[in-house]
């Protein structure tokens, strides 16, 4: 969480300085939810399809920090080699999917990965997870995917960040059901609600959902109430968020809540947290410096080929 | 023993399931029911747990297949009709089609599209979708026209590391028969000269290959014209070497297809021949497609909506008289 918040603050600064081409999308205010999910998953065993506001989850899952800085800064050494940018990155063969922009589509892709493991006999104890927002739950893809996962009773965990705005659209223009949890019930999926600003509650709720999925309980959905504490992207000042919403219950910063909870529960003291921060500052600085030094892709060296196969060699 | 086009598709899937543990089938009504066209009949019993019924969710069907392919499987998705693949369009072109370029990880899925018109099928069970998918990078689109190609090209499609849209023509399912499977060993991506000739070339694919051959036979009997018919077999990528070599021999081109006339495969063929082989042409290249309306229900309207041997002959006479 700390690393995600600091890293994204740096990315926002670089964007404002004109050093990042394209968008910068922050998970500010959603770190508790996202990191809780990522922390419950095991790199090398589980599957994670993060979405736009999941730096916390990516870091907690184990994505190397250089993947982030290289992709944002357009380094040819990054996993996307300049072919895609920002949050559109991943390591699919290592269980970290590279999102496309069409919301809801990851639900079925993660499900297909789980189905494959079932067919291969390697599903035991594996969990696949993906994230989505309140707006993304309106897509056909989301509904089709969740339904198909439920039919197959796959160990899927869907974390829904109800951050109250899909870009600028408030939830009363997004859905008419009383609660997004109703959607889970509609597909025979177990749903739980959580205050997404409450770090410890997020950890407990997400750990429960992941454990139920791991133990064969079928798809799980966790709906977190929270507020996005930034614009949709750094180009957006979020002036459409009313003051009373910002000042309300879900407008509080999960990072501050987490800090307080760590101290109060005795998990860490101020000195330890300060030590973590200082390590993170160095790590982020180094990752940004490395990516900045590296070359971008060379269009003359680019293999302009979207297919993996040379067809004329395919005979049976 | 005679084998139909749809039998060949079933046999190919049987072969694939038998020989390759990575292969599984996913689609609506394909398990015990055997599929709307019986292309998977008996396979769920022969290969338990590997022929899976899906919900009516084309988007999720493709998404599931993409995920499974990333994990090393070779899924074959059956769309009940090509027309319904429009619901899975996004996952095909944006998820599957971009994946290898973006990540370096290939997505070897095969999507079977029961395509094209049959009498009485109407606007939503008759469409030809090959041009739509061919427009996008990262996707291979094949359109077998013979029983043997239906078999071999399905097996080849599954062996390809890329997403393959396999357009199987419903009109050929039971109408087209062959004494058995044979093959000339052509790879995916290679066109075939189905009927040699020297006066003009018809470049076509899928069921229209048979209509073109009928028209060519008629023109030969009536007037002695020798028409060459090129079966593209694969429409993405196009085998321009074979097409240009044929046009070099004949000097005249008709690009023929059953799909809607705006854009599409025939437009691509004419455009490329005009660009790369303008000096080979003795007459302006022609295109002939279906009409620019939804595919009609009534058999009489349907027959007049698509090119027929009669209307192909008319188009050819215009081309030959230039």
Descriptive account of the structure:
The complex is a heterodimer of chains A (316) and B (322). Chain A contains eleven helices and seven strands. By secondary structure, chain A is an alpha/beta fold. Chain A has a single domain (2-294), classed as Rossmann fold (3-Layer(aba) Sandwich), CATH 3.40.50.970. In chain A, the strands form two sheets. Chain A has a five-stranded parallel β-sheet with strand order 1-2-3-7-6, sandwiched between helices. In chain A, strands 4-5 form a two-stranded antiparallel ribbon. In chain A, strand 2 (128-133), helix 6 and strand 3 form a beta-alpha-beta unit. The radius of gyration of chain A is 20 Å and the shape is globular. With 322 residues, chain B is of the alpha/beta class. Chain B contains twelve helices and 14 strands. Chain B has a seven-stranded mixed β-sheet with strand order 3-2-4-5-7-6-12, with helices on both faces. In chain B, strands 9-11-10-13-14 form a five-stranded mixed β-sheet, with helices on both faces. In chain B, 57% of the residues are buried. The interface between A and B is large, with 48 and 56 residues.
**What is the second-level CATH architecture of the largest domain in chain B?**
3-Layer(aba) Sandwich
Annotation, overall tally of beta strands of chain B: 14
Query: What oligomeric state best describes the polypeptide chains here?
Result: heterodimer
Globular, elongated, flat, extended or rod-shaped: what is the shape of chain A?
A: globular
* Main sheet makeup of chain B: 7 strands, mixed
Radius of gyration of chain A: 20 Å
What is the count of helical runs of chain A?
11
User: Beta-sheet strand percentage of chain B?
Assistant: 15-25%
User: Total number of helical segments of chain B?
Assistant: 12
Fourth CATH level, the homologous superfamily of the largest domain in chain B? Thiamin diphosphate (ThDP)-binding fold, Pyr/PP domains
Order of helices and strands of chain B: EHEHEHEHEHEHEHEEEHEEHEHEHH
Outline the biggest β-sheet of chain A.
Answer: 5 strands, parallel
Structural class of chain A: alpha/beta
Count interface residues per chain for the largest interface: A-B, 48 and 56 residues
CATH architectural name of chain A:
3-Layer(aba) Sandwich
In whole angstroms, the N-to-C terminal distance of chain B is 46 Å
Kindly report the average pLDDT value of chain A.
96
Q: What are the low-pLDDT stretches of chain A, counting only 5+ consecutive residues below 50?
A: none
């Amino acid at each position: 969480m700390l690393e995600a918040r600091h890293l994204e603050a740096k990315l926002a600064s670089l964007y404002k300085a004109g050093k990042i081409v394209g968008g910068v999308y922050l998970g500010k205010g959603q770190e508790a939810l996202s990191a809780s999910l990522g922390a419950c998953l095991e790199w090398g065993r589980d599957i994670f399809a993060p979405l736009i506001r999941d730096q916390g989850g990516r870091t907690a899952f184990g994505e190397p920090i250089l993947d982030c800085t290289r992709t944002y800064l357009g380094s040819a050494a990054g996993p996307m080699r300049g072919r895609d940018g920002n949050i559109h990155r991943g390591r699919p063969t290592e269980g970290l999917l590279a999102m496309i922009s069409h919301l809801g589509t990851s639900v079925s892709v993660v499900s297909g990965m789980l189905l494959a493991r079932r067919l291969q006999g390697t599903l035991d104890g594996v969990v696949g997870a993906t994230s989505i927002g309140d707006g993304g739950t309106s897509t056909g893809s989301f509904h089709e995917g969740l339904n198909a996962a439920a039919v197959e009773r796959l160990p899927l965990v869907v974390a829904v960040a109800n951050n109250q705005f899909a870009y600028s659209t408030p939830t009363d223009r997004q859905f008419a059901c009383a609660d997004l949890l109703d959607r889970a019930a509609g597909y025979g999926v177990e749903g739980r609600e959580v205050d997404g600003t409450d770090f410890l509650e997020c950890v407990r709720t997400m750990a429960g959902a992941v454990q139920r999925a791991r133990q064969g309980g079928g798809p799980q959905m966790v709906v977190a109430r929270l507020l996005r504490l930034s614009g949709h992207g750094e180009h957006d000042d979020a002036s459409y968020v009313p003051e009373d919403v910002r000042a309300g219950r879900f407008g509080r910063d999960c990072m501050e809540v987490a800090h307080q909870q760590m101290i109060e529960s005795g998990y860490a003291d101020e000195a330890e947290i300060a030590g973590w921060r200082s390590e993170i500052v160095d790590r982020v600085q180094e990752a940004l410096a490395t990516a900045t030094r590296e070359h971008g892709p060379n269009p003359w060296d680019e293999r302009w080929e979207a297919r993996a196969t040379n067809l004329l060699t395919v005979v049976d | 023993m005679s084998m139909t086009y749809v039998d060949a598709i079933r046999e190919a899937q049987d072969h694939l399931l038998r020989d390759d543990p990575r292969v599984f089938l996913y689609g609506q009504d394909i398990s015990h029911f055997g599929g709307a066209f019986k292309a998977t009949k008996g396979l769920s019993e022969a290969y338990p747990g590997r022929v899976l019924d899906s919900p009516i969710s084309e988007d999720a069907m493709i998404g599931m297949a993409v995920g499974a392919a990333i994990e090393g499987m070779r899924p074959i998705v059956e769309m009940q009709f090509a027309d319904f693949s429009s619901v899975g369009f996004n996952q095909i072109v944006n998820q599957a089609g971009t994946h290898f370029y973006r990540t370096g990880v290939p997505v070897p899925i095969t999507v079977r599209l029961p395509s094209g018109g049959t009498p009485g099928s109407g606007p939503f069970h008759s469409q030809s979708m090959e041009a739509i998918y061919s427009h996008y990078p990262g996707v291979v689109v094949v359109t077998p026209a013979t029983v043997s190609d239906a078999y071999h090209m399905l097996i080849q499609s599954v062996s390809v590391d890329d997403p393959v849209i396999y357009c199987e023509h419903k009109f050929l399912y039971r109408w087209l028969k062959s004494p058995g499977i044979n093959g000339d060993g052509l790879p995916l991506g290679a066109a075939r000269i189905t009927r040699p000739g020297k006066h003009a070339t018809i470049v076509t694919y899928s069921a229209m290959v048979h209509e073109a051959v009928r028209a060519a036979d008629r023109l030969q009997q009536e007037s002695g014209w020798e028409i060459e018919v090129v079966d593209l077999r694969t429409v993405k990528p196009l085998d321009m070497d074979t097409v240009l070599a044929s046009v070099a021999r004949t000097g005249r081109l008709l690009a023929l297809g059953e799909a809607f006339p705006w854009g599409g495969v025939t437009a691509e063929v004419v455009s490329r021949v005009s660009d790369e082989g303008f000096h080979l042409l003795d007459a302006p290249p022609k295109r002939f497609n279906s009409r620019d309306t939804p595919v009609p229900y009534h058999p009489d309207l349907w027959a007049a909506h698509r090119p027929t041997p009669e209307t192909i002959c008319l188009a050819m006479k215009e081309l030959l008289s230039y």
